[in-house]
Amino acid sequence: IDCVISLGGDGTMLDAAILISDKNIPLLGINFGRLGFLATLSKEEIKQIVEALTSSSFHIDQRTLVHVDAEVPMFADGPFALNEFVLHKRDFSSMIKIHTYLNGEFLNTYWADGVIVATPTGSTGYNLSCNGPIVFPESQSLVITPIAPHNLNVRSIIVPDNNIISFEVEGRADNYMCAMDARREIVPMGVQVAIRKENFT
After folding, report:
1. In 3-state terms, what secondary structure has residue 165?
2. Alpha carbons 145 and 195: distance in angstroms, whole number
3. Which residues touch 92 (CB under 8 Å, ≥6 apart)?
4. Residue-by-residue pLDDT tens, the chain, 201 positions
5. Closest C-alpha among 131, 123, 129 to residue 154
């Protein structure tokens, strides 16, 4: 396979990235949906797109993904995401307490609804909606952004993508939610999770 073409919106393109996994196949997004941060080409451009593909006159962007490791099996279809990893409280439960570490060293404790670890690609997604910064794709960094933090002075942090970011979660509920792009899993309270850069792009 020389190329996978995703016809839809950004969500369709994120789903296609899961199908490709580590097979090193380029992914081309043509926007038939509502959002077009990832799928930036329009269906009106299909003729030019086909010509560019057949003549190999295109550029391939290498995009960083994030990988999740945990004490319990998670995301059997692929423990990685192109946009972001999200740790979030369940439904209408109260805030959770998220102890955050960089390479095992304590970084911060967030009293919040959750926290996002966004790739540069994902910095224009949920991260941006939570007032996180936009990061250039080539910046070799990850963004840690709290979701509705209790302290008003808590802000996003940009860290080099060679760090391992780990979390310990406390709360009144029995579990919390983890999401990799649009896929979600419920995780028992007390289970530690760690995020790192994926080995493939």
Report:
1. strand
2. 14
3. none
4. 999 999 998 889 999 999 999 999 999 999 987 767 788 888 899 999 999 999 999 999 999 999 999 989 999 989 999 999 999 998 877 899 999 999 999 999 999 999 999 999 999 999 999 999 999 999 999 999 999 999 878 899 999 999 999 999 999 999 999 999 989 999 999 899 999 999 999
5. 131
Catalytic residue of the set 10, 113, 161, 181: 10
Quick one: how far is CA 170 from the chain centroid? 23
32-37 LR contacts (CB < 8 Å, sep 24+) = 32/7, 32/8, 33/8, 33/9, 34/9, 35/9, 35/10, 35/11, 36/9, 36/10, 37/10, 37/124, 37/125
Give the distance, in angstroms, between the CA of residue 13 and the centroid of all CA atoms in the same chain. 13
Q: Is the pTM of this model over 0.90?
A: yes
Annotated active-site residue 10? The verdict is yes
Q: Which of 103, 99, 196 is nearest to 142 (CA)?
A: 196
Q: How far apart are CA 42 and CA 45, in angstroms?
A: 5
